[in-house]
Each structure stands twice: as C-alpha cells, then as structure tokens.
C-alpha cells in the first residue's frame, strides 16, 4: 500500500511557512530538560523523521496522551532487536562501522506489554511509534550482523545490500485488527507517521480486497509493517508459502482491540496465525484494549512473556514510573472493571410499545440536528445486519421528509455489504458534516464500526436495542468525542460536554440489560415525554418546521408498504441475536419471542405465522412462512 486512502489536509503558503518554522524549531530545540508529555521529548529516542511527522507534518501534535506517554517512556529498551547471543551488543565494539553507535540497552527490560486505555485516547499512535522504531532498528541490526558475520571490517556496501534484502524478505511488526475498517485506518495512520520515510511501506491484508493484488504487492514491495484482519491473514499463511516465509522471523505482534481478538470468535484464527510466528521472546507481543474482562486477561497471559508489563492508562489508575509499572497479575483489580468515556452524557429511553423506538429514533436525530445544525453527525447502532439494512432504508426514505434540516446524508455499514460499499460509507461519513455549510449525516451501523474506527466530530451515538456485551456498549459510546476535541489540552479534566451524548432505546423486555449488565454505566433515564418537550422548545427557538405529527404520518404511510419477507428475515435475525442473550437480559425466551412478534406486527402489520423452537438445539428458533422458506440474504 503506497498511498494514503484519506486525503491529507491542503496546505497553503502560510501553512508551509509555519511548517518550516516548526521543523526548524524541532531541529534546534534543546530537549535536555524536556516536558515528558511533549512529543518533542522523544527527540533522540525515536527516528527523527517519525518525530517530524508527529510534530510538524502531517500530524502537528504537541502533547502525548497518557497512554502514549506511558508506552514511549519504555523506549528505546522496548524496541531493541532480539539478540540473545549479544552479537550486536555494546560488548562488541568492533567491527561496527564509524558512526554506528550501539544503543545502550537494559537486557532485562520487559519486551511484552498489555495496555489498557480508554477509547479514543490515541492507542494507535501509542503502538505505531514503537512498531515503526522496531522495524528501523531491525533493519540496522541486520545490516550490522551481515557486516560482522562477513568478518571483513566496515563495509557500507555490504550493509546496504543486507538492508535491501532484509526489507523485502522479512515482515516487520504485524498488527491485527478485528475489522477491515479499523485495519485500513491503522494502515493509513502508519503511512502518515512515515510520511518522511519515503521508502517505508505498509502492507494491508484484509478480506474484501483481491488476494491476487495483495500477493502481487507482497512479492514486489517492502513489508515494513503489516496490518491485517485475522481471517485473511490466516488464509494467506495457510495457502501462500511466500507469506509463510515472510512471517517466520516476524519480530512483533500487536493486537489492537485485543479483548475482541482474544475472544472465542477470533480465537481459532489467532491460534493458527501464532503457529506461523516465532515464539516469545524472539517475538514481542503488545496487546492494546479499552476493555479487559477477567476471562480475556487470563487468555492474554498465554500470549505474553512472564515478565510483561501491564500499563493501565485509564483515569484513576495509579501513575507509575516506567520502571515501576507492575506485572499484570499484581496490577489488575480483582473484579472486571470496564472503563467508559465518563465525559459523554449517556441516556436511556424506555419505549412502552414496539412501535415507539422508530419515531423516537427520528426524534433523537432531530434533536441532534436542532442542537448542532449542519454539523450534526449521528451513529445509529443496530443489533443485527438485517436490522441495520432495514433502518438505513427507513432513514433514506424518510429522512429528508421528516428531519428538521431536510437534506441529511445517510450512510450504512454492515458485514453483508460489498467491501467497496463499506469503504465508500466509511470514507463518506468520516468526511461528512465537518463544516458549517455541510449536510448533517447519519451512519446506520452494525457493530462493524463499534471499535476503533475513528470518525471525527460525531455528535451523538444512538443504540437501538442492547449491545452484545458491556464492552461493546463502551466501545460504541467511545465513537463520540474523538479526534481533536477529545485530545484538546485539558480535555481529560473537563466536565461532561452537554452537546455530545449517547442514547439508548429499549423495549420493556430489553430493560433487564440495564439493571444486570450496564450497572456501572452512568446512564440516566430520559422518558419520551421529555424528548417531546425538549424538541418543541428547540423547534420554537430555531424556527424549525419539525413536527411530530408529520413524522408519525410519514412512518405509518411507509411501514406497511415494506417487503414482508424482508421484515420476516429481520425478525429472524433479531431472534438469533436476542435468544442467546436471554440470561443477560434476565428475560424468558417466551417474552423475547413475543417482543419480536409484537415488533413485526405493530410496526409492519406482519403476523409471523408460527415460531417454533427447534427440538434439537437450545435457543434455535425458526420462522415459518407458509409460502416461502426463510432466507438469509439482506433484501433492502
Ligand atoms: N497526542 C494526541 N493529540 C491529539 N490528537 C491525538 C493524539 N493522539 C491521537 N490523536 C487523535 O485522536 C483520535 C483517536 O485516536 P485513536 O483512534 O488512536 O484512539 P484509540 O485509543 O485507538 O480508540 P479506540 O479504543 O476506540 O480504538 C485520532 O483522530 C488521533 O489522530
């Protein structure tokens, strides 16, 4: 992958001059007594070009976030090449070529880390800085080894050849991400950080793109960093000897959203991938996550070396100097402790009947548009792919008619879309509603966008129904308040921002989830009557023509005209989603069934003629339609 998939911001003459000045300041700056928070304090500990990308162009960052500060405090020891025999070590001063300073390293410093930090706090940069530095160090290390092994004294020519061969033959750090969108975002962030290292290359292995193209690039170009989703990487490792060979000396594995990757759904792929990588300690492992359940902590231990560090950069965690960061077992609190964006106000609305969530959803979006105008940018999370497709259709058909700002850009992302459609939605929503005269935007999404994906300027997240886990709730809420807003100086200490928020719409049979699963979340009740009053006040204040009657009429005109098969498929998908959650909801399967039955009947006037529990398997229900068997495609 040699080009950025998101456009770099345009720079005019003024910006160019500013950049020159910043670069000069970076060159001349004395960092002998640096502010440890400032990126500039990394001068001398990371490659100059990486530092320039961070502080001058394209990122122009000033201060590190706590997680970045804690991780980079471990440099340079954290990224020293694995050299158990000490061949390239301070004990071997010769025959190092002139100007090659062997780094001063602590041979006992931990090499593996488990990092917990809240969503949106800059974990990507926190792992990319050491990953890039590790790759650069390994390239030099190998060049030194080649010279030493040749035994002919300093030879820049030989070193150059060794560098060239190594960069093409051996994969650098491997970063795994659970979703394609997040993988793409990480790869693009890596390209930004290596803007000034023109030859540095990032390979991206994700499903949805052609394998042939990925293989062609793998064979022809450098493999400095590899970003991948587990399924595609496993497939390539199992079927392509060239990929297998490339990874046999892979020095570093980074799991972003580690809790999800270590969970059962990905575990098989992960175990298969691990069998192609070198074992620890030759392979370093970094695990990054915003949430860590007890079970995940246990399985994390099997990936990490025994003297790994646990770095807890969540608020309230003890602040430790790097040499005192504690091993995981000592540092983690005994109970599951999930963190969330405490700065995001969170509300739940209990909808009395099955026909309430849809109009209430439109009202919440209307509320957001009346509050933020054209910069309103809302993500609606739905429980299943079918539901996501259905709600996206409803938004597209009704949005312009009923929402206060008229034109609203609606995007949708779920796993049954083609990759190019996912990419277009991802790209479109990322750029949307960023200027005053833009159009408000809504992204209707399944959990594909819940983690890591960084959409700047999201003003509100609305969850329709319950998430699959408490961790998923936290990640969804974490889509608000990201990017520059979240990182503004002092933001961590600021109080809640009343204009950005998260909402959740629940039916009575879903309400147990609040009590039993989201106990620690700062969710406040928000009745529909209060939403109505707030909307009225806002409409009058802004002179908007928004009307709840128009909304109600438009919905009741549209819903009965929808394809009944599609509604049945959505109802089936909801059953498949909710029944296994019955113990989390503390709801009997029968009340889930009748809740979903009511949803189909009251909204779409579709009686689901018969629902039966399969005699063979628990919680496997099937919908029967006299005329047609249930089909599983997304029909919208
Ligand atoms: N030091 C910093 N100063 C300002 N902005 C930053 C800084 N570090 C990162 N950012 C920006 O903050 C946003 C969120 O960063 P990132 O996506 O890495 O968060 P995250 O911790 O990985 O979140 P998640 O857990 O949701 O994946 C990005 O837009 C990133 O460019």
UniProtKB/TrEMBL annotation:
Q: Which GO terms describe its molecular function?
A: ATP binding; hydrolase activity; RNA binding; RNA helicase activity
Gene3D superfamilies the record matches: P-loop containing nucleotide triphosphate hydrolases
Which major enzyme category is it?
Answer: hydrolase
Q: Which residues form the Helicase ATP-binding domain?
A: 104-310
Q: What is its EC number?
A: 3.6.4.13
Any notes on this protein's domains?
Answer: The Q motif is unique to and characteristic of the DEAD box family of RNA helicases and controls ATP binding and hydrolysis.
Q: What protein does this entry describe?
A: ATP-dependent RNA helicase
Q: Which organism is it from?
A: Hydnomerulius pinastri MD-312
